[in-house]
Amino acid sequence: MAQMFRQRGHEIVDERDFADVYVINTCTVTAVADKKSRQYIRRMKKVNPASIIAVTGCYAQIRPDEVARIDGVDIVTGTNEKRALIDCVETRAKAQAEATSADADTNCRLCIHPYEELNDFEDMGIVSSRETRTRAYIKIQEGCNRFCSYCVIPYARGPVRSRSLDDIIAEAKALIDGGCKELGLTGINTAQYDMEGRDLYGASDSTAAASADSTAAVSADSTAAMSADSTAAELFGVEKAIAVINDLEGDFRIRLSSLEPAVVDSDYVKRLFKYDKLCHHLHMSAQSGSDNILAAMNRPYTLDQYYDMVNTLFEFDDCYGISTDIIVGFPGEKESDFQESCKLVSECSFCRTHIFKYSKRPLTKAADMKNQVAPQVKARRADELEKVAAQAAEGFFHINLAAARDGRTERVLIEEIVQKPDGVFLMGYTGNYIRTYIDIGPGNPSGIEPGNDSDGGLLLDQFVEVKLTGIMYDGMSAVVV
Ligand code: SF4
User: Fold this and answer.
1) In 14, 178, 347, 362, which residue has its Cα 20 to 30 A from 35's Cα atom?
2) How many structural domains is the chain composed of?
């Protein structure tokens, strides 16, 4: 959206700055997200009471009338109308300038396609610019067909629509040519990317339904980009997108934003090991450590199957970074179910665990379940799990530290220079997603001599080979080797 605004001659300013137009992209994944969206809208309006406030995203899609009633909101668009939003903003601005805002109200106040009409992958063009040089995200698909019983997202985003491989390749090439070193493949449920091949793979579950709505086509151009031994016929799902990008020339890495265990299994995970540019980090939302709760959540896997995926990753690389999401206080979650979630987090040495207190979402089955968990119980469980998650992350750091003592090195992509109480550091992430600090103070062990441009000079946005040396702040310390 930022690029499209720029292309039409508008200037993008920092969110803290005074602006004529504020575009607020909302989230509705939890009740807290709705609340934050409302607070943010009000805060922006206060910065410039005369501004145009345009609200889009999931909260706007699910509760358009509620959003439109918030004081100061001028434009509301859904999740598939980002282009329309820009048209609306320009129409509104023109009308304001000509003092005919009543007309603009009629045309632009609400622009929402209902769920049944969310059928196209909205073409936003090829993104070639980004806010930082280090990392860019390529959106490869939209929507989700899973309908987990707690989740409103399928209603907010519609069914799966996959982006064409040609567009994905074009965007990846433009970003690599622009110096980008890390491409994140993102979407609502990236594992459901173009699942037409799912049946060929032979797995059986409800995700086969995804195939009917997938739209990606493997064109002659894109298949040519695949290596000789990985033809389109042998690939399926998100692997297609990974394969074509992996084959592109250049020194860059690929990060998959998430891999949904409700869609794939350990055999699928193994298929990804051959892509050498794919980071050794996966986000796999477990959501619960209890089979009873997983069934109630409409998550079509068992705990054993989840462990299979985790073990498969650790067998491939015992330093593989795995992050997860856990919901606490899902309706019917007993103390014993919760303890199973704690056990799962502890045993899997997750590098990061995102913990959510269950909240009722509109349109979902779980919202009508009788056995809702009391707020104070959810809060206590969330606190308890936070402690377990912190220990698990520390365990993950120790696994990496032991590997480093055995001679393992990591490739860190340097993102920024940070000032900490103990000095000045280059900060970046390893492939397995460890936030890494490299001392660049006087006499530092890496021998780095910062340039005159206030910094670690040439190392910014570059890969450096490091050895991890200890646990530091929210990550690990390292020296350049
Ligand atoms: S897989 Fe489940 S949790 Fe994830 S977006 Fe789809 S419905 Fe929501």
Assistant:
1) 14
2) 3
